[in-house]
Amino acid sequence: MKYLPENVRLCLGSREIPWPGLAALRARGKILELTQKEMQFTKDEAARFIGFDDDHLYALAEGWPLAFGSFKVLFQNGISPGATPSHGHDTLYEYLLHECILRLAPEVVDFLHTTACFEELDAPMLNAVLGIQNARLILDSLAARNIFTIRTSGTVFRYHALFTSKPLPSAMLPKRNIQLF
Question: Which residues form the MalT-like winged helix domain (predicted)?
């Protein structure tokens, strides 16, 4: 990228924060980053996109464009807005599972499954509850990679509403070695 001609523009897309090698370009203002916050629909944009305002759907999707695209397809196929969460979950969950969950290490999938019941995720509390020492590292990694995890304050996180609204299918959970005595 150092040797690209001036008239060339490069566009990179990633779920993860760009690698450290781009720090110099970022410092010189040569990179335009669009984060989850810039990409999510506002309430008004979501209402224009699906054709009506629905507080419940907006709260469930948290502005996520893919969720609203899925909802819109359901509406076009005759599903009523009231039935959208139950019908929409299958489509969205299939996406979440195949694009996100299946690419994670089994330990991280287990962490997500075990901690999805908490409204707030605090690393010291999770370390104590789970008997681990690396909850902060896992939470930071999930948030940096935009995997269902949102930092609400310096050390506190939460999961996206779509992720916590339905448990992970047992087939997606890591297989544990069970020893019988």
Answer: 99-164
